[in-house]
Amino acid sequence: MHRRLLVVLVPLAVLLVTALGVPLSVTVAEREIQETYVDRLNDVGRFSSLAETALSTGRTEALQQELTRYHELYGIPVAVIDTSGTVLLGPAGAYQEAARDEPALPRIVTAALAGARPEPSGEWAPWDDSALVVAEPVGRDSEVVGAVVTISDLSKTRSRILTRWARLAGLGLLPLIALMAVAWPVSAWVLRPVRELDAASSRISQGDLTIRADAEAGPAELRRLAESFNTMMDAVENAVQRQRAFVSDASHQLRNPLTSLRLAVESLEPHLGADGGGRQVYGVAVDELKAMQRMLNALQASARMESIRTASPVDLDAVLATRVERWRALTETAGQTLTVDVPPGLRLLEPSGGLGSILDELISNALRLSDARVVEVTARIDPANAGDGSAAGGAVTIIVRDDGQGIDPSERTQALRRFWRSPRHQNVPGTGLGLAICADLVGAAGGELRLEDGLPRPDGSGHGFAAVVALPAVPRVPSSSEAPAPA
């Protein structure tokens, strides 16, 4: 989370440094270029005064030597030209070679010969390679007899500008580095309670209501938030515990009087006449008492299973190893056939209460409610969540399907609600809680229980019933004691 905070803070700091650094960099570049231009302007002004005296007296040897020496020292060709553009004094070869690459030279020379001091030429940006052309007229007004022209290579000036920019960039990085060095631990300290709240919320979503947040660390606002969170969880846990305790206690307390009532009703059987209507009423009363006992047993089982809220990884092979033989015995007794097609090595997150109990309930529904001949249990990796065909990061889907009566599509949503029973199964023993409890437990483990079409019926009249359990897959981590199998 603090990484996302830095992603927000660092770009803002970069924008601030850039907003301050760019104008400063432009000022530095302009200053360097301006200093170079003033130096060249002073040089051509001095040479112009010397050239005016030398041309008027005819003594040009000293000026010629000075212009040559200037070129040798600084590498800048400077020439004195007449009104026709012919070089009178200075290194003519170097000047003409440099002049060929400067398209602005004729304009500047023409302005200087007209007696004006022209604007300097060239792009002064460090990434441009044009030269600086500066010209000064020799003479004044109508007595201009020529001009002094310099063509200066700005590569050294641009190198100095880039060096200054590099230093400014380095100085600009210092506050960014300091910001990151300070913001990383500070943001971690500030957001640690938020991370703990997030972890606690994740644990709570998995059913662990005992988790609490640390209300002693972090800023005052987050400490108050953690305290409010803990208070809320105390109230939620107490309410859930009271609810479960009520269901369990009520079921337990009702069981004894209900058992006594059933014994009392059954003790009336010898006193009923063989042909009277009382025996029919007696049978109805006994059936209702048995249904109430099953209901209480289901409520107690629900309270026990929901009190265990921690999901844990489990090997599907280990779960099936303890269940398949019993399922086969039950199906053979009912005259049905059980087939199990589950690939080995699947590991998934087991809901609270146990995956075996959930599969027992699904098999029981297939035996009691569907009138099926074939019950099939299969498992696979859900390709929608594990495209590479591995269980890691995907979902393991377990399907229990049969070729019996099935459930109408319009009733499948209601079948996952508590106490709902299909009109076709009103006379079949059951409470209507099994599928609903299984769906809740699977959902609490991050999975899903849905109902679909099952196997085709033998008479071709449709499809049977299928319960699909999708649970998160857990990657298998080999232990250090596991050695690779020999080839």
Summary keywords:
3 domains, Helix Hairpins, Heat Shock Protein 90, alpha+beta, four-stranded antiparallel sheet, rod-shaped, five-stranded mixed sheet, Beta-Lactamase, 487 residues, disordered C terminus
Topology:
Blueprint: H1 2-57, H2 61-74, E1 78-82, E2 87-89, H3 92-99, H4 105-113, E3 132-138, E4 146-152, H5 155-205, H6 220-266, H7 278-307, E5 312-315, H8 316-321, H9 324-333, E6 337-341, E7 347-350, H10 355-369, E8 374-381, E9 395-402, H11 412-415, H12 434-444, E10 448-456, E11 463-472
Parallel strand pairs: 6-8
Antiparallel strand pairs: 1-2, 1-4, 3-4, 5-7, 8-9, 9-11, 10-11
Helix pairs in contact: 1-5, 5-6, 6-7
Organism: Nonomuraea longispora
Domain Histidine kinase: 249-475
Catalytic activity: ATP + protein L-histidine = ADP + protein N-phospho-L-histidine
Structure explained in plain terms:
Pfam families: HAMP, HATPase_c, HisKA. This protein is of the alpha+beta class. The protein has three domains: 2-159, Beta-Lactamase; 206-309, Signal transduction histidine kinase, dimerisation/phosphotransfer (DHp) domain (Helix Hairpins, Orthogonal Bundle); 311-472, 2-Layer Sandwich (Heat Shock Protein 90), CATH 3.30.565.10. It is 54% helix and 14% strand. The protein is built from twelve helices and eleven strands. The chain has helices at residues 2-57, 61-74, 92-99, 105-113, 155-205, 220-266, 278-307, 316-321, 324-333, 355-369, 412-415, 434-444; strands at 78-82, 87-89, 132-138, 146-152, 312-315, 337-341, 347-350, 374-381, 395-402, 448-456, 463-472. The protein has a five-stranded mixed sheet with strand order 6-8-9-11-10.
